Amino acid sequence: MKPTRTAVITGASSGFGRGTALRLAADGFNLVLAARRGQALKALAEECGDAIAVVTDVGNPEDVEKLARAAIAKFNRIDVWINNAGVAALGRFDDIPLRDHQRVLQTNLGGVVNGSHAALRHFRQLQSGTLINIASMLGRTPSPYYASYCAAKYGVLGLSDALRQELRANGEDRIHVCAILPMAADTPFYEHAANYTGHTLHPFPIIDAEAVVDAIASAVDAPRDEITVGVSATAAILGERLAPGLVHRVTGIVAHQLQMEAAEPAAHAAGSLHAPMAVGTGVHGDIRAQLDAETQRAGR
Predict the structure, then answer these.
(1) Which of 149, 154, 190, 196 is catalytic?
(2) What tens digit of pLDDT does each residue of 61-113 get?
(3) Which residues have CB under 8 Å from 279's CB, separation 6+?
(4) Which fold has domain 6-298?
(5) How far apart are CA 199 and CA 91, in angstroms?
(6) Is 154 labeled as catalytic in the residue annotation?
(7) Is the peptide bond preceding residue 61 cis, with omega within 30 degrees of 0?
(8) Domain residue spans in the chain?
(9) Is the pTM for the entire model greater than 0.90?
(10) Residues 204-233: pLDDT tens digits?
(11) Kindly report the CA angle at 289 between 228 and 213, in degrees rounded to 5?
């Protein structure tokens, strides 16, 4: 009988993080759940059995150190660390306040650096462990109006690649670094995103959140360097390799048309960048339903 494994999951209060927590709880993992929303986190921990909730802002290194200490104090070890927490500020680059761009980088890249640092120090003591970084296809193929988000996700992939090289160079082959690259998914991410586009948000294409949870769970049990999620993600990777200039021009035109021309008007909103929001605590979000409703209103 295998010993019970312990997993730390950041951004656990909704979306991929919540879905992964429920999946790993069903598989018998000890769970250490992290997010800024204490009430939602506590409720999830209760659903997951013998899990603990640690209110954490991943952009704060002291919070992440506290998270790692809590995991070891409760369960004695960490076997899997999942850097999942993420935020976004979408719109024309210079229309978005600089402090919002900085917050995106602090959370989406700084948070992964902080979590990876804590996890690898522990994994090297054990000489085993799996680090899973939730990146994005926007870390391989950029999109207009997602500038700081793309910058952070490109950084996550670069960090993951460099850590893999370092581990291999040192013969630490029982420590794995995995990156998950999903396309846009129907989670509460878009309810939480800061929106400075002047329009409702129009990501495309959209995949189901459960497909990403499946990919994360597969990396836990069978680590791979990178896992793209969905046919569209695989096609985007191929296009980026074969004709990056063409792919960038076409996706830029399509993204602009969908987001800035076809989308309905909407007021600017700060989202959850600087303070967590009460709404959006499920695995799934409402973006697909919103887009379907807009299509019906437009008679398309």
Answers:
(1) 149
(2) 999 999 999 999 999 999 999 999 999 999 999 999 999 999 999 999 999 99
(3) 188, 191
(4) Rossmann fold (3.40.50)
(5) 9
(6) no
(7) no
(8) 6-298
(9) yes
(10) 999 999 999 999 999 999 999 999 998 888
(11) 30
